[in-house]
Write a structure and sequence with these properties.
This protein has 938 residues and is an alpha/beta fold. It is 40% helix and 12% strand.
Length: 938
């Protein structure tokens, strides 16, 4: 008998077999892979990221060694499951990291072959130029993968017309130890017995399966015996894998069916006085055959209102008091036909009881914004105060639409009987409502409620002719499958499982089991739900795995380190998981946690873009405070803190140091572990454009504005102060540059609380003194302004308001001020590139600059970009060069190297552009000065 080897010997075996991808035992990554968008937590032993299908086969071949007979294998895509679908012990197969290729697009016949790690939005971006799209539209489309959609049979908006994922798949390729098995060609000899065994089981159980599955639009899938065994006698074995959640083996290639893009879109949004009124509106509206009908209840509306999300709604959709919204979308090719249906629908809505608001959108950009408001409101469900938060565990039940009102009444009775609050949204056109009861999973009482509510709602779906799992897969809720499908049909599912996975190693314990225990909704480990009261790591516990931070788009600021690496631990979610595991008992090694926090760029996008504001930089500060109270700081960190603290002195002696800087710079780079530090020290601002700190607070002439700098800008970018002075003077102001006080950003980032407090106190005192002059105050660098605006209040400081230049100027325009103007020539329009911290905290920043340029007669175009990869010192640190350069290439290089004039608002961004492209960018105010004939010397 061969003794089973510990799993820690598996990496060596995989390497010996020629595995080309990553093999990871890092505790921070395993913590990140231990959670999804559910309340569960199962820490795997090993994470491997295959490069391609051949790599997946190599893994399976190594696992055939009897020494590894006990090692489970679970495929994972985007990790957005709401019920623990991809969580397990053993080995996690991370298909999202590398297997992201669109392999082939057949624009003639309307299909595409993709690897399982392709993100839904990325696929549709690739298809758009060909006039096609992949139809299932999920709320997580920016980060969910096609493989995950196939494995859970995902669906979403529009499924009444377009169907679920299983309705839009034409074939699969799966990996086996013997090789690859594809439905798109003949089965190899070794696969014939496996398929024959699966077919026998499927045919024997088909009748029982059909008898126990309601005929609904959102039909039951996962081991779909009905569609696998066609009436003509064929056996479409691959249909068994749709919705099987990896329990039959890993998928390596997917052929998807495409649909023609429908150019005509209309959206109606109606507000109703109560959710009952909104729900009652859905069935009559089906007569107009819309693509989708969705609802959002008053609780979700209130949360979105409090978060400021609804400010983006047209005024017509913001009546006083609570509102339940109905979204009705029409898509198609015939504009006249759609307009006629929309007109009928509007008349119908006006006649419905409780209707209090009505709006129609025709512009595609506005339609996207309105849907984004609905999606954002749902994401905010987790952003509620207190230990209880809405949990997705009974949220995607489906019943026939005509039974929906009665089902909802019964459902809400169950929640009220259990004393639970809730939020509701969903797809009423197909009878699917997402109802999220608020629970505190740390509480034994609420864990018992989770079971009681699950049992009751499962019974209600049977009572009303529905399905317990309508959209988000089964996961731990698969524990109800034997009772729901019945013994004969379940035995057939077991036969299929035995054919493809007799050893029960693929995502074991889920859906169908042979000899193993089945995972249950309350017997599976829960993740810690709440931090101790007042703990600085509270937000790490509130991360619910929604994973908005894993968005693939290069121009979306959150999260740059994940975009550059595809590595889950290099994301706000991954870092929150690692911090939570460390805080909860040391499941993450401190060295591993240090590594994932070091790779954070500190851009603060998560602090404003994440639905629950999981502010990783702030929590990193708290962790560093703890860690460096017990350990010595690295020399580069100590030198950085010293440089920041004494930057005022450095600025005063810069005139003497400037000629020596070329000699000192290489030494500084060696000591700091840095590269490409700025080549020049800044020249001082002319005396007549400066104001001494001693003169702050005194009366100042009309039109004066005070300009404030951070220490990096003051030391290394004297041009921006000259540009700002020239630009503001050309607009009719009297700008004065204030003597620099460091803000302590580096000290706070590194957890040096005492040093930060000393600098913050001095800066706040100077700002307060200056505010007594009652003139506008402007911060020249966005990172500096946002530091004061976001982090100072959290640290207990209340500095006077410091505006960004475009905020000040757009406010002046709104107050009626007129600027001098010019006539724009025929040359290319300038492009404005904003700092990522600025765009996430102030989404209107680019539009404000465009407004300023328009006021002087110029058209400037704000461009959408992600992080440039500099982020203060990050882009200078030698260890971060691959990530820094990759980020610049992803979204900045194309703009910087274009022929059009380009300006950038951030010092870091201008630095990065110059060092990686050789192009020296200027601040937008430099362009204003030049246009108005007041250009400073460069």
């Amino acid at each position: 008998m061969i003794a089973h080897q510990p799993i820690h010997t598996l990496p060596e075996a995989l390497q010996a077999a020629g595995f080309a991808g990553q093999i990871e035992t890092d505790s921070a990554l395993r913590a990140a892979m231990a959670t999804d968008n559910s309340v569960y937590q199962i820490t795997p032993d090993l994470v491997v990221a295959p490069r391609d299908a051949a790599d997946v086969v190599r893994v399976l071949q190594v696992l055939q060694d009897p020494a590894f007979a006990d090692v489970a294998l679970t495929p994972r895509g985007g990790g957005t499951g709401t019920n623990g679908q991809s969580l397990n012990r053993g080995l996690i197969l991370d298909l999202r990291r590398h297997m992201t290729r669109v392999l082939e697009i057949n624009a003639k016949d309307g299909w595409a072959d993709v690897e399982p790690g392709v993100v839904l939005d990325a696929l549709n971006d690739a298809l758009r130029p060909h006039g096609w799209f992949f139809a299932p539209e999920t709320s997580t489309s920016t980060r969910c993968t096609i493989g995950g959609m196939v494995s859970t049979d995902a669906s979403g908006k529009g499924s009444r017309i377009y169907g679920k994922t299983s309705d839009n798949v034409l074939g699969l390729e799966v990996a086996r130890p013997e090789g690859l098995l594809s439905s798109l060609g003949p089965a190899p000899d070794w696969a014939v017995p496996v398929l024959a065994q699966a077919e026998r089981a499927a045919r024997e159980g088909k009748a029982a399966f059909v008898a126990n599955t309601p005929r609904l639009n959102r039909r039951f899938t996962g081991y779909d015996l009905d569609r696998a065994c066609s009436e003509g006698g064929g056996f479409d074995w691959w249909r068994l894998f749709l919705g099987a959640e990896g329990t039959l083996g890993p998928i390596t290639r997917i052929r998807v069916k495409l649909r023609r893009i429908e150019p005509e879109k209309r959206l109606i949004v109606a507000g109703f006085a109560t959710f009952r009124d909104a729900l009652a509106a859905a069935t009559p509206l089906l007569a107009d055959d819309p693509t989708a009908i969705e609802v959002m209840d008053e609780w979700v509306q209130r949360i979105a209102q409090e978060a400021g999300i609804l400010a983006g709604l047209p005024p017509a959709l913001r009546p006083e008091g609570p509102v339940a919204y109905v979204f009705v979308e029409f898509n198609g090719h015939d504009a006249a036909g759609i307009d006629a249906r929309v007109a009928t629908c509007l008349d119908r809505l006006r006649a419905l009881p409780g209707q209090v608001a009505l709006y129609q959108a025709r512009d595609l950009a506005e339609i996207r914004r309105l849907w984004a408001i609905r999606s954002a409101g749902v994401g905010l469900l987790a952003k509620v105060d207190g230990p209880s938060r809405p949990v997705a565990f009974v949220e995607d039940c489906v019943v026939p639409p005509e039974n929906l009102p009665a089902f909802v009444d019964d459902f809400l009775d169950v929640l009220r009987d259990n004393g639970l609050g809730f939020g509701i949204y969903g797809h009423v056109d197909v009878g699917c409502l997402h109802i999220r009861p608020a629970l505190n999973i740390d509480s034994a009482t609420d864990r018992a409620r989770l079971v009681a509510v699950s049992d009751a709602v499962f019974a209600l779906t049977r009572k009303h002719g529905g399905i317990f799992w309508g959209e988000h897969g089964k996961g731990m809720r698969g524990a109800y499958l034997p009772e729901w499908i019945g013994p004969a049909a379940y035995a057939a599912l077991q036969g299929v499982k035995a054919a493809f996975d007799p050893a029960e190693r693929f995502n074991p314990g889920k859906l169908v089991t042979l000899r193993r225990d089945r995972m249950g909704i309350a017997t599976t480990p829960f993740r810690p739900f709440n931090a101790p009261d007042g703990d600085a790591l509270d937000k790490a516990f509130r991360c619910n795995g929604n994973a908005q931070c894993l968005s693939y788009q290069a121009a979306t600021p959150m999260c740059p380190s994940f975009k550059a690496t595809g590595d889950l631990r290099q994301s706000p979610k991954g870092r929150a998981d690692a911090l939570r595991a460390w805080k909860s008992g040391g499941a993450v090694a401190e060295a591993d946690l240090l590594a994932v926090l070091d790779s954070c760029l500190g851009c603060k996008a998560c602090a404003s873009t994440c639905p629950v504001q999981v502010d990783i930089p702030s929590m990193r500060t708290a962790f560093y405070q703890s860690h460096y109270s017990r350990h010595t700081r690295p020399l580069p960190d100590r030198l950085t803190l010293l440089a920041e603290r004494h930057s005022g002195v450095a600025l005063r002696v810069a005139g003497l140091a400037r000629p020596l800087w070329p000699l000192l710079r290489p030494m500084a780079e060696r000591l700091l572990g840095a590269v490409d530090l700025p080549e020049r020290l800044a020249r001082p601002v002319p005396r007549h454009d400066r104001i001494a700190l001693a003169d702050l607070g005194k009366p100042l002439p009309a039109g004066t504005v005070l300009l404030w700098q951070d220490w990096f800008t003051a030391l290394f970018d004297g041009q921006v102060a000259l540009d700002a002075v020239a630009g503001l003077r050309a607009l009719g102001y009297r700008p004065l540059v204030v003597g620099m006080h460091p803000a302590g950003k580096a000290a706070q980032s590194l957890g040096a609380q005492g040093a930060f407090d000393a600098m913050a106190a001095r800066l706040v005192a100077a700002l307060t003194r200056a505010a007594a002059s009652q003139v506008p105050m402007i911060g020249l660098d966005p990172a500096f302004v946002m530091h004061l605006r976001q982090d100072y209040p959290k640290a207990g400081y209340a500095p006077p308001a410091l505006m960004l230049p475009q905020e000040f100027l757009s406010a002046e325009l709104a107050a009626g001020r007129r600027f001098p103007s010019v006539v724009q020539g025929d040359g290319p329009q300038p492009r404005i590139l904003s700092h990522c911290t600025e765009t996430t905290a102030l989404p209107e920043a680019g539009a404000q600059w465009a407004q300023v340029f328009a006021a002087i007669g110029l058209k400037a175009v704000p461009e959408a970009t992600g992080c440039c990869g500099m982020a203060g010192l990050f882009g200078h640190q030698a260890r971060h060069q691959p990530v820094s350069r990759r980020l610049f290439d992803m979204s900045w290089r194309p703009h910087v190297e274009a022929a059009a004039p380009v300006v950038a608002t951030g010092f870091s961004c201008r630095c990065q552009a110059e060092r990686l492209s050789g192009r020296a960018l200027r601040h937008p105010l430099a362009l204003v000065a030049e246009a108005l004939g007041n250009a400073p010397a460069a």
